[in-house]
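Escalated from tier 1: iron/sulfur cluster holo job.
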Amino acid sequence: MYSLLRYVPSIFWKRKPIQLTFFVTRKCNARCPFCFYLKSADQPANGAAELSLAEIERLAPSLGRLLWLAFSGGEIYLRKDLVEISKVFYERNSPAIMLYPTNGLLPELIREKTEQILEHCRRSVIAVKLSIDGVYSDHDALRETPGGFDKAMRSYGLLEELLAEYPNFELGINTVFCSRNQDKMDEIIDFVSDLKGVRTHTISLVRGNLEQDDYKDIDVGKYQRAIERLEKNLKAKTANIYRFKGARLKAAQDILQRRLIGQTLVTHQRKHPCYAGRLNLVMTESGEVYPCEILSTSFGNIRDHDYDMPRLVHSNGALSALEPIVDKRCHCTHECNFITNILFNPRMYPGLLREYLQL
Ligand code: SF4
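Tier 2 regenerated the structure:
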C-alpha cells in the first residue's frame, strides 16, 4: 500500500486537494426515496453528457497524488467503463484508498468488476461498501426494491471470497440513518457485526434535498445510541476493523467523527475548520466541481478550464465560493468531510490519540 506519510504536508498546507468524490454516473437501478440524487436521476445536470474516459484521462494528471478517491452515483457499477476509469486514476494519481459504494443489486457484475480492479490496482486499498439499511424485508421496504436484500447478501457472499486472495481488499457496510429505520438500529448493527467478512460498518446520516423531507426527521438521541453501540462493539473487539496499515487510526477517527457529528446535530454549529474545497473536492458526472456535496455553489466546470483542476480551484469564482466555508458560515454532518477535518487538524490529535489508545 502507498505510504500514508506522503500526505503529512497537507497537515500544514491546505491548497492541494487530496480527496476527490467523483459521481461517475447518475444512472441507478433503484429509486431509494432518501437518495439526494433521486430528484434528477438519469438526467445529467443541464443535460450535459457524462465525462468520457478520454476526458477523465485528460483531467486526472492535473489532480496529482490523491489520498482518497471515492466514487459515487447513481449506482457506480452501471458505469460500463468503471474498471478503465479506476485504472486511469490508479496510474495517474496513486490513491491510497479507492472507495466503491454500491446497492449490491448486480452481484455477479459487481464481483467481476471488483476483481478486475483488485487485479490491476494492487498498491491501493480497494474498499467496497454495500448498502444495508434494514434487515431482510425492512431493507426492501425502505429502499422500495423487492428482493434487494437477498441480492445485496449475494454480493456480500461473492465479494467475501475475494478477501483471501487480495490483501488490499476491504469489505464494508454502510447504513443510511433516517426517520424510517432509526428504531431498528440495534438489529441492523448486530446483523452486520455477524458478517465475518465485513471490516467496517458506517452509519451515514440522511442528507440533501429529498423528495420526501420527513426522512430527515430523525431523533438525535437515537442516533447517539446507535453510534455508542458501534463504538462499544469496536472497543470490546466484537467488531472488526479494516486490515490496511493505519486502520486503527481510521477506527479512532470514525469514533471521534461520530461524536462530533452528534454535537453538530445538537448545537447546529460547526466548531472546527472545514477543509472542503481545499483538501476535498466533489465532481459530478458532467464535470461540475463543488467544494462539497452540501453547498450548491459550483467552483466551475472542468470542461471550461481545459481539464486542469489547479486552474479551476484557483480561479476567482472558486476563491469567492470558498469564503463562506473559511468564515464558518455553514455547518453540516457529512461524514466524508469530517474525515479530513479530523485527520488534518492538529487540534484534533489529543482526542484522536485518546480513542486510538482505547482500541
Ligand atoms: S461544513 Fe459542510 S456544508 Fe460547510 S463546507 Fe464543510 S462540508 Fe460543506
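Residues 270, 274, 276, 291-292, 294-295, 325, 330-332, 334, 337 surround iron/sulfur cluster (CB under 6 Å).
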